[in-house]
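Notes to self after the call with IL:
- keep both proteins in one doc
- input above output, always
- annotate only the second one for now

Protein 1:
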Amino acid sequence: MKLGAKFTRDSGAFRRRIGFTIIEMFISSTIFVFVTGGIVYSHFIGTKMYNLAIAKMGGSDQARAAVGTMLDDIRDGKMIQVGWGNLTNFTAAGAGTNQQGNSIQIYLTTNYTTNFCRYYLDTNTARLVRTVNGVTAQDLIAQNITNSIVFWSEDYAGNVLTANQNNRVIHFLLQFYQIQYPVLIIGTNKGSFDYYQIAGRITRRALE
């Protein structure tokens, strides 16, 4: 009885004991690198598309909120003035000048001294806010506004008025951008962000 077996290159035991060659290891490593790179790249593209969708949806939500609030106030207003204002002051555009500015003041009743709400662009924070007479609190309507003139008073044909007509149309324009996701790169220029714009024309329900 033999205590051991001699292995030869042609024997099955020898073939079972040998490992991969250098070429086989190189091919296997290359395939592994390509597969891993494909998975990482797919994950990167998916994350980028997700951030892009979130940014666009955020801009759309902001726009809908701005339009909805202003729409109700302007339609219900008894008198509307366009001009320049802030939290404490408002100056209506003068006669003979373009009826435009960063603010509108909406009188909700025929009391044209105290009962009003005001929309204005805060140039320090680039935010469009709403405030009510006698209340120091402000409601945020939209943020990251890039244009300085937000409101116009126009006629039915879209011409900017130079007088405060009763049957005027209020034209508003909001150009803003999302910076909640600053790592997001959109477009061909590195570091550029996607801008959003919303515009509309609103008239009052009842013209006195």
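Protein 2 (the one to annotate):
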Amino acid sequence: MEIKKIVSIVGVRPNFVKLAALHRFLEKEYNHIIIHTGQHYHYELSRAFFECFELPEPDYNLEVGSGTHAYQLGEMVKRIEKVLMKEQPDLVIVYGDCNSTLAGALAAVKLHIKTAHVEAGYRSFDKKMPEEVNRLLTDAISDLLFAPTKTAVRNLKRENTRGRIHLTGDVMVDVLLDYMKIAMEKSRILKKLNLKPKEYITLTFHREENTEEKRKAQSIVKALLELKEYEFVFPIHPRTKKRLKKFNLLEKLEKSDNIKIIPPLNYLDFIKLEKNSKKIVTDSGGVQKEAYILGVPCITLLLTTGTIETVEEGWNKLVGVSIQKIVNAVKFFNPRNNKPRKALGDGKAARRIKKLIDYYANNIFEL
């Protein structure tokens, strides 16, 4: 197998973070082409991340935008296929678990292009989550599986996936460690929002299961309104804002004295906000990992997680949307230990992935 041209396919905020870890290594030796599906298109969720990480403009922006899962996947596969047929890459890399990930893998495999999945093997074992279905299908058809944790490796082996499995660590650790010092020095988010370290809680939620079902959204909002003695900072996702407004819940949060709703933040501002939080409440897989790496207690508004290590080591508590469980966790949950948080890797995942790609590029045999 000879690798000269590599295409990375990205579409959402967590993808851009993972791309930032790999691009600087790949661009030195390969013709590295970036396809942005346009799944996330708001400035704060897309362009701001490319600017923050000093990533080049995507070679292609497919501008798919929002829509149903079927619409997004269909449009992405069609548009990605056209680009891949034009560029004829030797390897396609997909990242994470969004619709762009699955669409990229499907388009590549149908064209018989070797495919690598960064963040392979994470499992929540809940197929009601669109992300879980995307992970399973992407891993089933990819040739190279870059697994972030030992648990992820076990999951892939148990599923008898056909791809070559490699334990690399999570590239999100790489990026967070690389940009932490810059964020602490350059970000002025605490001053801008008049916040004091460890005196507020960072809140995010955007998962489909929590925003599309009125009952679940109501439970989360009710729990937040009960916690009047705690200050919450809520960088609100555009989809969450739209749904809360439809359910007549947004106004209740806006009128609350303890909940500060702000637009989505760029990467540097957000990790500084996380680092200085007393606790974090979220349903984001990426934020769960960031909280663990930063050593901030995390309360997850789900009953499953792809990074079970964060729960097993006592840094993450799964509460779902139970009002009482959310309230109790905010009041009483604290990590059980102060052991080193190494389950997600040591910050060298991107280097390992680059070396593995080099290995396959220089050893001519079929994957």
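Annotation: The chain has a mean pLDDT of 94. The CA atoms of residues 309 and 343 lie 7 Å apart.
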